[in-house]
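Title: Comparing notes on inverse folding

I've been comparing how different people in this forum approach sequence design from structure. To keep things fair, I'm posting one structure and asking everyone to reply with a full sequence. Here's the target:
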């Protein structure tokens, strides 16, 4: 028996709706009258699963591009929020900035955002850096008391 080289029409439509729509898996399956068990069987088929994972990879790449495009805007807004008049908002923004600095330092193999190792992040204003340090000191103090 020859193996088919193309997805069935329904399979293709399901994948198109899964990766192109705003609705979830169950809604797509319901729309096409497909049972979850049938979808699971399709996932066992080499052709269907290969197409599924290829579309999934493409979606992930698109997401990474969107994040890369808007991350400078988000970072600038986060820095603005560290000066919020609402103490809790400012505190959470400071914590988020510290988490991002730590993650960035971890990705580059550094121990943390300290001293000269901060590199590109050393452009933080003295005021923002002071707020960040105050939140860090507060969190470390709370950790010792717990």
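Reply #1:
Here's my take.
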């Amino acid at each position: 028996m020859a193996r088919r080289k193309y997805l069935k029409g329904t399979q293709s439509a399901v994948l198109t709706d899964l990766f192109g729509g705003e609705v979830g898996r169950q809604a797509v399956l319901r729309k096409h009258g497909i049972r979850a068990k049938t979808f699971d069987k399709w996932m066992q088929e080499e052709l269907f699963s290969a197409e599924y994972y290829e579309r999934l990879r493409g979606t992930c790449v698109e997401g990474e591009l969107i994040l890369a495009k808007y991350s400078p805007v988000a970072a600038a807004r986060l820095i603005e929020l560290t000066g919020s008049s609402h103490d809790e908002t400012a505190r959470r923004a400071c914590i988020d900035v510290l988490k991002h600095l730590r993650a960035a330092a971890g990705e580059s193999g550094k121990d943390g955002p300290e001293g000269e190792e901060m590199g590109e992040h050393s452009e933080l204003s003295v005021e923002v850096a002071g707020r960040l340090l105050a939140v860090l000191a507060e969190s470390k103090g709370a950790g010792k008391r717990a």
